Task: structure prediction
Amino acid sequence: MSFDSFSFDQRLVAGINACGYVTPTPIQSQAIPEVLAGKDVMGLAQTGTGKTAAFALPILQRLLAAEATKRGPIRALVLAPTRELAGQIHENFIDLGRQTGIRCAAVFGGVGFNPQIKAVSQSTVVVACPGRLMDLINQGAIKLDKVDMLVLDEADRMLDMGFLPDIKRIMSHLPEDRRNLLFSATMPKDIKKLADRILKNPVTVQVANTAPAKRVSHAFYPVDQHLKGRLLEALLKEIEHESVIVFTRTKHRAKNLARKLDRIGHQATFLQGNMTQNQRRRALDGFRDGTFRVMVATDIAARGIDCDRVSHVINFDMPDTAETYTHRIGRTGRAGRSGEAFSFTTPDDKVIVRDIERTLRLRIDSHTVEGFDYDRLPVQQHVSHKPKVHNGARRPHKSGGNRRPRRSAGREKRA
Ligand code: AMP
Result:
């Protein structure tokens, strides 16, 4: 299938060409005709599958076909959970719609109100995070009474982040007669409920949740908690990598690890919940343009990072759920490239390891890094009076054989 089969307006074709898209991705082939036909759509797909263009293109096409005015009123509203994702969707609309003249505004927290209020008053498409959008609604600064296309993107994450009440309130400001699209990487019960509530006779389009697994190879690296930092250094030396995302469990670990890596010569930055908009943008732009080759991030902060050059995702700390694992590794193996997902596992991670294997229907092999001293004692024990007896040979690491006291990572506040 080619983009020609959708008979898009030439101005949109120009945008598609400028973005370098030649062939629609599977989610695009499935979703675009349905949205063009005015159907409600439930899209099961994660970031990295091309899902943004799967809704942006038909929305722009419908606006062009309806000869919608280009500088408002707002006809299409896209809700996204994080500023990064909202920013990326906004950029996608701008890039694809560049020749159409249709204005698109982004609405998210952490930046001043006035420029956003001005932008929304002159836009036909708005991409928004629910919290800031509610602020604008409450201030009477935005009119949504002409919205006839609504997209909820990464709906599962929006619910995880507690946005359901805001979403319900936002919906009460929209006209009843509208098209609705809901995208989600997963389909837990509460998403099903939300879909039942919002979508009318929806068509379900799905690209298999295991899609990244085909392009991503997985490996576990069993290691004691206190050796994770050293193992990461050793691994980064050993592997040939382009851009790498390292996931940690807490904000502090993300920041400290990035600083440590940067000190020893890896161009590293971090992304976590407590950053100003400018700091985030600097980190993200630097990661995208290759100034930083390693990004250390927490789950929430990393939502929607869009960088095609990510060759490796490293789970420095394991995620809590198999779904989060799938989200994390969705950052690599994108746009047809292959990627690798490495996970540092401790004996405490047995349950999640099993869940991941079951969810992906894969048996994931455990690996060791050649020459790495897996028997090294924690720092506290080095300074004690008990000298370490070592015969010089590296003992093969046995997963599950964690004999040393481990520093807990669990006490810090999560991002
Ligand atoms: P998304 O899942 O929307 O975040 O898209 C993932 C990446 O794929 C983005 O960098 C898009 O620009 C890119 N992309 C989307 N559609 C296509 C396509 N048809 N051909 C090539 N790249 C695409």
User: Anything to note?
Assistant: The longest strand covers residues 216-222. The radius of gyration is 23 Å. Confidence is low (pLDDT under 50) at residues 209-213, 382-415.
